[in-house]
Design a protein that fits this description.
Blueprint (H helix, E strand, L loop, with lengths): L1 H11 L2 E2 H10 L21 H4 L1 H17 L6 E6 L5 H9 L4 H6 E6 L3 H11 L3 E4 L10 E6 L8 E6 L2 E10 L2 E8 L9 E5 L1 H17 L1 E10 L9 E4 L2 E3 L9 E3 L2 E2 H11 L2 E2 L3 E2 H7 L2 H9 L4 H15 L8 E7 L12
Parallel strand pairs: 2-3, 2-5, 3-4, 5-10, 10-14
Antiparallel strand pairs: 1-7, 6-7, 6-9, 7-8, 10-17, 11-12, 11-13, 15-17, 16-17
Bound molecules: S-adenosyl-L-homocysteine (SAH).
Length: about 350
């Protein structure tokens, strides 16, 4: 990957951060997600559905309630963006088995770029699903979508505003290494001085989903780590074997993510035509969805170390010092609908 990047830079010049990120994660041969299983203890990072089954179960219950709130359309597309190992969807499908109308009406659509993860999803889900490279090819049907830790993996540009001038952060090749540099950039609408991060591709996807929801009906959840208001600061980070490393250190073999800017995402969903509800923290969302009751019910069947692990996993999802506060849940929906618990009552 490093040699490939150095040659590319020699041929085409400095790589803006979004291009670097897109190549590191999605290059067909060398891209991080394209030929590995990045999750779990043996991988580089873990995610809520991999930590506790309760996460997917509660998201599944939300999906049924949202489907009912938009008038129980049939058929409808149940869409997951970036399904990883397929664990979240497996938990959603198991938890919604007691809603046969919902299950009877759904057609499963997975947006996934990685061939190796598509294979894992196929094996894990063992049900009929259709895979898509982008949201463009989704069917023209009402949709319920979920996206957990999807938007944080989408490329960002880093633009510095300094003394009324703008500079874009780029990757250059220097001697044998990759280095960060900056090049003059066109004018952006930012007011504050400092490093601004924008993700045009995230906005395009959110606007596209918003437009589908407005035209065809639907609702969805974005769950990710990030901030509710746009600001300045460098949030791009690399993870390898559960430890943070430099973003240029292990291109193609470390995960790269950035904080999701929920304010910009919300704007994009609304400009597509969807209604955006005030976001909740992951802790508040899961607690309102009945986490404690579900924990108590499952805990009654466990003892010893499995019980302790199970309780610890559930706590990790909602604890303020763990994922409870840093992770946010944004709901979007068609305008015409019943109230969407727990975002509105
Ligand atoms: N939702 C899962 C996995 C999160 S990791 C979980 O919570 O465990 C990010 C996922 O998004 C991976 O499946 C990755 O392959 C996929 N992905 C990343 N960028 C993508 C893109 N541009 N298009 C489609 N899928 C993408």
């Amino acid at each position: 990957m490093k040699d490939f990047l150095k040659e590319l830079i020699a041929r085409e010049g400095p790589l803006p951060i979004d291009r670097y990120m897109a190549l590191c994660l999605g290059h067909p041969r060398f891209g991080y997600y394209m030929n590995r299983d990045p999750f779990g203890a043996a991988g580089d990072f873990t995610t809520a559905p991999e930590i506790s089954q309760i996460f997917g179960e509660l998201v599944g219950i939300w999906c049924v309630a949202a489907w009912e709130a938009i008038g129980s359309p049939a058929p409808f597309a149940l869409v997951e963006l970036g399904p990883g190992r397929g664990t979240l969807m497996a938990d959603i499908l198991r938890a919604t088995a007691r809603a046969p109308e919902f299950q009877g009406a759904l057609q499963l659509h997975l947006v996934e770029m990685s061939p190796s993860l598509r294979k894992m999803q196929q094996e894990k889900l063992g049900v009929q699903a259709r895979w898509h490279d982008t949201i463009e090819t989704l069917p023209d049907e009402p949709l319920i979508f979920v996206a957990n830790e999807f938007f944080d993996a989408l490329p960002i540009q880093q633009i510095e505003k300094r003394l009324a001038k703008f500079f874009e952060r780029v990757v250059v090749a220097q001697d044998a290494d990759l280095k960060l540099a900056e090049i003059p950039a066109p004018v952006f609408e930012f007011e504050q001085d400092g490093l601004h991060e924008i993700s045009p591709i995230s906005s395009i996807i959110a606007e596209g989903l918003g437009a589908r929801i407005a035209a065809l009906g639907g609702a969805g959840l974005v769950i990710d780590y990030g901030h509710l208001e746009s600001g300045v600061g460098d949030t791009l980070q690399a993870l390898k074997a559960h430890k943070s490393c430099g973003i240029l250190e292990h291109p193609g073999t470390s995960d790269l993510t950035a904080h999701v800017d929920f304010a910009r995402l919300a704007t994009a969903f609304s400009s597509g035509g969807a209604d955006v509800l005030p976001a909740l923290t992951q802790g508040a969302f899961l607690n309102s969805m009945g986490l404690e009751t579900r924990v108590a019910k499952l805990a009654a069947q466990l003892s010893g170390a499995p019980l302790a692990d199970f309780i610890a996993g559930a706590r990790r999802l909602v604890d303020d010092k763990e994922m409870g506060k840093l992770f946010k849940v944004l709901a979007v929906a068609q305008q015409n609908r019943a109230a969407l618990y727990p975002f509105e009552t």
